[in-house]
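Example 9 (inverse folding). The structure is encoded as follows.
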């Protein structure tokens, strides 16, 4: 039953990864928490194990999505190369911060963040009067560090930050979503390394864990998500940019409401 739940959520996360450029962690983390509770994992480390395991799955889900988008030529590798140094630093930094935050603090921050992003994405239009380019090296590095740190803290691929940032820099929504998949892969790889290292001396983790990455749960999610991701990527090419923007805004709104419900 637990494996089926992980596989089902992995498939949903894979479709969303391909469709919206997200890593799927927003769906995977709550399911992992539920499964770990059923397995009686120590409550003090459940959130950290869920975040670390989620980020490990995003590495492979994002890779599958990137390969699909690459065939259509929509990944902007120039933007990816400029932002990656900051992303790598931010991913490690975020893992260290998350290790010191309480679950309540993470929940409150997550809800506020998701509602903010939803409002920003739903208000913007495709034809923007301001045509901005990427900031310089330092500006892009700072932006990458912030995206990497926040994504690492919440166990997500970072599209909810990187897509708005890239559209603000005048990339099309479709190109921003494709590029965010590549960025999410870097975020997840860096953050996963951080969670692995930080959890190496944790004695209460379940068997077959490498730091805060629980391998059986990781495998249950990643197989389904990798298989489903190309379907979402192909579907994105059949939808207009306005529709993609609305789907993205709706997704983060629903996610924010769900997380708010948990707090009440």
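The amino acid assigned to each position is listed next.
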């Amino acid at each position: 039953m637990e494996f089926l739940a992980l596989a089902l959520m992995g498939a949903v996360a894979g479709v969303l990864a391909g469709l919206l450029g997200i890593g799927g962690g927003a769906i995977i983390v709550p399911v992992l928490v539920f499964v770990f509770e059923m397995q009686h994992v120590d409550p003090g480390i459940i959130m950290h194990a869920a975040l670390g395991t989620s980020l490990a799955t995003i590495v492979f889900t994002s890779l599958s999505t990137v390969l699909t988008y690459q065939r259509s030529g929509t990944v902007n590798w120039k933007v990816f190369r400029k932002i990656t140094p900051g992303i790598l630093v931010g991913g490690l930094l975020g893992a260290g911060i998350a290790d010191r935050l309480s679950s309540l603090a993470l929940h409150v921050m997550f809800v506020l963040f998701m509602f903010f992003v939803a409002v920003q994405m739903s208000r913007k239009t495709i034809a923007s009067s301001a045509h901005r380019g990427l900031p310089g090296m330092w500006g892009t590095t700072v932006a990458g560090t912030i995206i990497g740190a926040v994504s690492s803290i919440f166990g997500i691929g970072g599209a909810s930050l990187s897509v708005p940032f890239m559209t603000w820099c005048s990339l099309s929504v479709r190109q921003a979503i494709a590029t965010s998949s590549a960025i999410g892969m870097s975020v997840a790889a860096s953050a996963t390394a951080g969670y692995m290292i930080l959890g190496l001396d944790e004695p209460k983790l379940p068997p077959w864990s490498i730091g805060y990455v629980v391998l059986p749960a990781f495998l249950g999610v990643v197989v389904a998500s990798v298989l489903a991701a190309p379907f979402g990527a192909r579907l994105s090419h059949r939808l207009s940019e306005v529709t993609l923007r609305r789907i993205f805004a709706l997704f983060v709104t629903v996610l924010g409401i769900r997380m708010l419900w948990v707090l009440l």
